[in-house]
């Protein structure tokens, strides 16, 4: 049995750890981008909150039009893990800076189709897929980006309603961007690094190119720079499952 924290209890929890918040915390509620970047806002609807076994939090997102979602291997490994995972769609604030949220659509995870520890990904399905089709999906950008390419990351930091990390006080142009396109994660050159702000619970978030609005990497590490596994490497492992 598990329960969440009240607002007062949550305020006392440690947040904004220096391992993932780089400089000041520049993340904003997804709905704050509804007018100023409507494409980023629409893409954020495909990003979901994971509540794993009642007490662990991660982020995931829909991959393509079929019943496929992706998160980190360090979040979900087996179908038994997926089966005990609540997948929350539309867990977003209704107003920028507000506290009320839209009514979420919750389904259960189902089967793990592919997973890899070194590339730190898990591809899985959900039950009752027809209930969540309307929230859209993301597509892959199968290239290695250049240093300086601008990014944004829709995510559920600390299990909160969807936030987007896009602006950055650690990047010269004010938008978070690729710091190193050949960064070492669990394997040499497996990641790209960036100073987009993330927190615990953001693991499994999509790292999206601002130029193409497609996914370049799967976020998994903090450390300033933070980093995500290159999606082209993951695609080579999962393309037969899509």
From TrEMBL:
Lineage per the UniProt record: Bacteria, Bacillati, Actinomycetota, Actinomycetes, Micromonosporales
Pfam families (UniProt xref): Trypsin_2
Coiled coil: none
Organism: Phytohabitans houttuyneae
Signal sequence segment: none
Listed Basic and acidic residues bias regions: 1-12
Top-level taxon: Bacteria
Region (Disordered): 1-25
Protein name (Swiss-Prot/TrEMBL): Serine protease
InterPro entries for the chain: Peptidase_S1_PA (IPR009003), Peptidase_S1_PA_chymotrypsin (IPR043504)
